[in-house]
Write a structure and sequence with these properties.
single chain; about 230 residues; mainly alpha; 9 helices; about 0% strand; globular
Length: about 230
Amino acid sequence: MTSQFLWVIFPYICIAVFIVGHIFRYKSDQFGWTAKSSEFIEKKQLMIGSLLFHIGIFPVILGHVAGLGIPKEWTRAMGISDHMYHIGAVWGGGFFGVMTLAGMIILTSRRFTKKNVRKLSSRSDLIVNTFLLFIVFIGVYSSLITNTMTPGFDYRDTISVWFRSLLLFQPEAAYMASVPIAFKLHVVTGFLIFAMWPFTRLVHVWSVPLNYVGRSYILYRKHQPTKQSPR
């Protein structure tokens, strides 16, 4: 029963909350669809942490999409051997994972230890930062440590197949039975952050100012006061 809840019911609940929560948040709180900037309080750690996090997170996301969504047979057909894929996933993904983790450590430390930044932070900000830090940490640990210490385990034969079965609405919880605990924690907390997403500042991710690309330039003209003629 626990297995069915964790690997079938719980993921669908999180996905439903993610979708419905975003719709509700957008309709009820459009003006709060943003993140409070703390740059004017402390800039150096924010710049370093944010740069490391964002440089690392995009390759990490792409790696997750490829690893979970692309079957082994497809990569083999493209001439990529399982060993070659494994080396790229572990060490390439591990490199960008460590970079993301370093950024999250700096950003989380800044939010908790800088007095004025913490005052500006809501409770949900602190929870989200802590959760993201744990998710990234356990992901890096799973990739670099668990993969090395668990010979014979291949997440593409277990987690990936399970994940695709969820997307096809034919969930197979049995695929997760032999998955190491670190990977399971990474999966569960990953889905949990998706459920929390609509109710936190993470919604600002979707506020990409695409209209700025085609927007006309703003022209500033110096105002010359008109001289009044003497009477």
